[in-house]
Amino acid sequence: MINKSLSENDKKQIRLMGFDFNNVILQLKQFSKGTPFLKLNRPATINDGIKRLSKSETVELVDIYNQKAVKQKLMKFIPASGAATRMFKVLIYFHKHYPDKKKSVLKIEAEQGDENSRLMLDFIENLDKFAFYEDLKLALKKDGYNIETLLDKELYKHILDYILTDKGLGLTNLPKGLIKFHRCYGESITAFEEHLAEGCMYVKDYEKKVSLHFTVSPEHIEKFQSMADAKRQVYKKKHDAQLDIVFSVQKRATDTIAVDSKYIPYRKKDGTILFRQGGHGALIDNLNCLKGDIIFVKNIDNVGSGETREQTARWKKILCGKLISVQEKIFYFLKILTESSTNKVFLSEAEVFAQKELSVKWDDYCLSDEQKQSFLIALFNRPLRVCGMVKNIGAAGGGPFWVEDKNGITSIQIVESAQIDPSSVKQQNIADQATHFNPVDIVCGIRDFYGNPFDLNSFVDKDAVFISQKSIKGSKLHVLELPGLWNGAMAHWNTVFVEVPLTTFNPVKTVTDLLCKNHQ
Fold first, then answer.
1. How far apart are CA 293 and CA 398, in angstroms?
2. Residue 271 φ/ψ, nearest 5 degrees
3. Buried b (16+ CB within 10 A) or exposed e, 445-481
4. What average pLDDT values come out for the chain (520 residues) when binned by 10 residues?
5. What is the phi/psi pair of residue 439, to 5°?
6. Please, what is the angle between helix 221-239 and helix 191-202, to 10°?
7. Residue 366 covered by a domain
8. Which candidate, 21, 425, 430, 500, has a CA 20 to 30 Å from the CA of 241?
9. What pLDDT does residue 3 have?
């Protein structure tokens, strides 16, 4: 039935686009199956899946980082293709619908609980605190406007024109990475530059090389490259570092097919099938191409300034020290497990380590020693990630949970709300008990104990897809998103959760987030 919905021309299109035809068929079948839900066992909490480190432990882990990390190939991987449109959502709303609304009205609406009016009021009253304020001021002055006069007369439409559109700064047409986030030492710097500065603090190797990899949208790659070229010498002088900055885009072959309400491939005006980007889970292919030993993963909009940057860098070293410590133990067990048959005492020691350090639980009462040895070899011989977790503050996004798989094995996973069955009261109750949140603060060990890189695509839970609804010119579409980068795409990695301070989590989801203390 599914094959019949695809013509010979469709098959030709799929081949020319470099897609695997069988994979497209599997995608179409996935729509009819729906989104598969995970089975939550319980939330991961302190001392039950999440490690809270003592002061002495953090000092020891920083020492491990200082002694051993610089001898390895360190890299930082930053997903940076996100557009700034959502960041300016409230400003766009007022610009379109209420461009002449006065401050007094905004105050009344804010007091009555209107969140959009409160955010707009915060933005207007603190306009001079934004790092792009001076650029805005100059853009207005160039066309004969005085920003103070516009504010006094409450002519907010002119200000929004010059912030949002190409009349002025055109910030909604830029990616978040190229928006000026902070003022630092007398200059305004972008989120991209913050990642360069932060990277110099914990990704520098013994050759003083700092390797950073940004995934960006094709239409923005030239702007990122231009800024990188302009900043290399600056950071070499300021941080005594040689910046190796690389950019990549999501591979076209990871795009997924879109379907209509009847799960029939959606067609464009020219009759060809519509394919869309497969979400950030597609970036596992980009990550898989990196030639590093240890990879730090962090989102483009999660950067602080000043003292916050210092604390963030320290905790990156702590997480990296933890990864090295755990990885060395894993390699120790693998060396002995793969060389010969082992005794019950050693198998028991390895099993305790897996359960205590890697938070994997299973019933082994029916396993022979040989079966247990084979199981442990397969379990240990996987990529490793150490993930920072912050206390839950009600932010939207994923969190740490214990999850049961179809084989009865329970492990800790990062779970998005879309992966939890909304119709199950029990599952939703478990979700509501979450104490921590995933800030995307991950350190990855991507080589095996022989020193060879893992094929990261072999450790993806292919079933952990998302099906969402979109709209194009009034037509409703169903869109398939690949398993998310830090949940489904890393579902079969070994995982360690470590509590990190909330001060290391400074995302900018809306423009007014830049008014928070850690961004000022």
1. 26
2. 90, -10
3. bbbbbeeeebebeebbbeebbbbeeeeeeeeebbbbb
4. 72 87 88 88 97 98 96 96 90 92 94 95 96 96 95 94 95 95 88 95 92 96 95 88 94 89 88 89 95 96 88 97 98 93 89 96 81 94 98 82 93 94 95 94 97 96 88 82 93 98 93 92
5. -90, 5
6. 40
7. no
8. 500
9. 56
Number of domains in the chain: 2
Chain center to CA of 25: 28
User: Does a structural domain hold residue 291?
Assistant: no
Length of the chain: 520
Shared-domain flag, residues 130 and 277: no
pLDDT of 36 reads 86
CA distance 177 to 83: 9
- The answer to whether position 81 is within a domain reads no
For residues 279 and 313, membership in a common domain is answered with yes
Tell me: do 313 and 440 sit in the same domain. Answer: yes
> Which of these three, 125, 146, 173, is where a domain ends?
173
CA 377 from chain center: how many Å?
30
- Contacts within 8 Å (CB) and 24+ apart, 18-22: 18/252, 18/253, 19/253, 19/255, 19/275, 20/253
Domain region containing 133:
86-173
Same domain membership, residue 257 and residue 114:
no
8 A C-beta contact, residue 79 and residue 299? yes
CA distances from 178 to 83, 89, 108, 131, 327 (A): 10, 17, 35, 12, 36
Q: Two tokens at 258?
A: 């879109």
Question: How many angstroms separate the CA atoms of 329 and 353, rounded?
Answer: 9
From the list 383, 373, 371, 365, the residue with the least C-alpha distance to 346 is: 373
| Pairing mode, strands 275-276 and 45-46 | unpaired
How many other C-beta atoms can be found within 10 angstroms of the C-beta atom of residue 492? 17
Coil, strand or helix at 207? coil
pLDDT for residue 73: 95
Mark which of 173, 207, 237 sits at the end of a domain. Answer: 173
Q: Are residues 100 and 137 in the same domain?
A: yes
- Nearest 5°: phi and psi at 166? -75, 0
246 sits in which H/E element: strand 242-248
- On whether the CB atoms of residues 402 and 43 are closer than 8 A, the answer is yes
- Strand positions, DSSP E, 419-510: 436-437, 441-445, 466-472, 475-481, 494-499
User: Is residue 382 a part of any domain in this protein?
Assistant: no
Report in angstroms the alpha-carbon separations of 290 from 284, 300, 317, 455.
10, 18, 20, 11
Q: What's residue 278's pLDDT?
A: 87
Domain match, 105 and 44 both = no
